[in-house]
Amino acid sequence: MADKEIATLRDALRGTKFVYIAASFAALGGLLFGYDTGVISGALIFIKREFGLTTVAEEIVVSGVLLGATLGAIVGGKAADLFGRRRVLLVTAAIFGIGALASAVAPSPPVLIVSRVVLGLAIGLASTNVPVYLSEVAPPHARGWIVSLFQLAVTVGIVVAYLTDYAFAGVEGWRWMLGFAVAPALVFGTGMFFLPETPRWLIRGGHHDVAHRVLVRIRELGDVNAEIEEIKASLAQQTEGGHWTDLLRRQVRPALVVGLGLAVFQQVTGINTVIYYAPKILQTAGFNSASGAILATVGVGVVNVGMTIVAMFLVDRAGRRPLLLVGIAGMIITLGALGLSFRYPSGQLAWIAVICLMGYVASFAISLGPIFWLLIAEIYPLRIRGVAEGTAATFNWASNLIVSLTFLTLVEKLGASSTFFLYGLASVASWLFAYYFVPETKGRTLEQIEAFWRARHRARQRASWR
Q1: Is pLDDT larger for residue 191 or for residue 253?
Q2: Computed from CA positions of residues 232, 135, 250, 388, in that sequence, does the dihedral angle turn out positive or negative?
Q3: pTM for the whole thing?
Q4: Number of C-alpha atoms within 13 angstroms, CB side, residue 464?
Q5: Residue 273 and residue 32: Cα distance in Å, rounded?
Q6: Cα dihedral angle (405, 410, 416, 418), rounded to 10 degrees?
Q7: Can you give the residue ranges of every domain in the chain?
Q8: Which of 17-26, 116-125, 434-443 shows the lowest per-residue confidence on average (mean pLDDT)?
């Protein structure tokens, strides 16, 4: 092999390695997201015992983090556009650590709720900015699975949370469960300190030389100048933007509808009732011991991780739309089966509920789970990407908050069976939405996706003039 070819191969491997390292550290924000939302499912059983919580108080403890996440998502996108993705993620890591520590030492329910609101701020910031960071450092051919690392990290965080819950269940150590998140927060912050800003944000801010150096480090082969010129050309075709009011412009509106629609449907199909309340659901289905219900929940979490990995390998091969449509169809079937399983007396059929939950989570994990976060990181123009993704994440967390605040009440009033049938109907609506509104973005650069929306807008304008 010639010296020139060896040097080229060495540069390719160096660029690939750096992208993997950057993606892995950034995805730790997703792991913390998953851990801090999932850990409450096991901890809640023991928090209720210690503080004597009512059903409404339980819902508030769970939902405090969601309120904070909604607020974090509102400000996270705009902050990222103003200060950069990396700086916001550094602040996010610090808030993760503070919130986890405060939750672990909380002496009363009000302090615990406030601590979880603070923790939620970090989750909202992470959910807004980690996918954007990943999408802007990833090469087009690998963007699907690299951005899906975020959702994989979320699912791994949930499993780690369930395992931590199980490990401390015997001693009712809910404070250790909540405080364990301080360690990964430190690793996340340390990693982001050494990672670069994304080249697209740097070019938007006029830092072309820095952007060139970053691209040289993270790209495998080819002339990075061509990518820089493509980003500049994309920016040149946009008017000044970056404000919430820009989301209402006609050329942006179709992408906004897709993002907000997926944001709402990802939650109203009920996935986080499983994440937050799985042990309670399984106790309702017939598991008598808290540790047994938590252990069964670990199995559900492992399925979530496994199927998310499957989605990562398929998303850049099969495409976004096929995975969405097949996965949501699976959710419809398994939610119907889960609703039927609660029609029968509990006890003997408890494992049927576990199987249905696993099927439901598996279907979600190849569809709405990773693909929502991937699409909202892809479909918006660069100038408003942070604001637009922040808006989608805000709708996502607000929907999550509503579902989580109402789940236990719905189960008390309607029964578990009717509640899951209701989520099944929402899944039918989400399938129809995906079929009619969601475009395919596989294999396109972010600038090509942006050009697609512009061309679509111009075509509609010409049609309206006829």
Answers
A1: 191
A2: negative
A3: 0.76
A4: 6
A5: 19
A6: -130
A7: 8-195+238-465
A8: 17-26
CATH of domain 8-195+238-465: 1.20.1250.20
CA 78 to CA 452: how far, in whole Å?
Answer: 24
Residue 4 pLDDT: 47
Report the distance separating Cα 331 and Cα 59, nearest Å: 25
Token code pair at residue 78: 């705009």
What angle in degrees, to the nearest 10, is found between the helix axes of 55-83 and 40-51? Answer: 130
Tokens coding 252: 């942006």
Confidence of residue 54 (pLDDT cuts 50, 70, 90): confident
* SS3 readout for the chain: CCHHHHHHHHHHHHHHHHHHHHHHHHHHHHHHHHHHHHCHHHHHHHHHHHHCCCHHHHHHHHHHHHHHHHHHHHHHHHHHHHHCHHHHHHHHHHHHHHHHHHHHCCCCHHHHHHHHHHHHHHHHHHHHHHHHHHHHHCCHHHHHHHHHHHHHHHHHHHHHHHHHHHHHHCCCCHHHHHHCCHHHHHHHHHHHHHCCCCHHHHHHCCCHHHHHHHHHHHCCCCCHHHHHHHHHHHHHCCCCCCCHHHHHCCCCHHHHHHHHHHHHHHHHCCHHHHHHHHHHHHHHHCCCCHHHHHHHHHHHHHHHHHHHHHHHHHHCCCCHHHHHHHHHHHHHHHHHHHHHHCCCCCCCCHHHHHHHHHHHHHHHHCCHHHHHHHHHHHCCCHHHHHHHHHHHHHHHHHHHHHHHHHHHHHHHHHCHHHHHHHHHHHHHHHHHHHHHHCCCCCCCCHHHHHHHHHHHHHHHHHHHHC
What are the backbone dihedrals phi and psi of residue 237, each rounded to the nearest 5 degrees, phi first? -85, 0
Q: What is the mean pLDDT of the chain?
A: 83
**Cβ–Cβ under 8 Å, residues 257 and 437:** yes
Distance from C-alpha of 388 to C-alpha of 376, rounded to nearest angstrom: 8
Largest CA distance in the chain: 74
Over range 162-180, report the average pLDDT: 83
Token pair of 352, please?
Answer: 């049927």
Q: How confident is the model at residue 98 (pLDDT cuts 50, 70, 90)?
A: very high
Report residue 9's pLDDT band, with 50, 70 and 90 as the boundaries: very low
Q: Is the separation of the CB atoms in 366 and 354 below 8 Å?
A: no
Measured CA to CA, the distance from residue 30 to residue 320 in angstroms comes to 20
pLDDT tens, position by position, 230-283 = 777 777 765 555 566 667 777 778 888 999 999 999 999 998 887 767 766 776
Q: Is the pLDDT of residue 109 over 80?
A: yes
Q: In angstroms, what CA-CA distances link 72 with 122, 129, 263, 364?
A: 7, 10, 15, 24
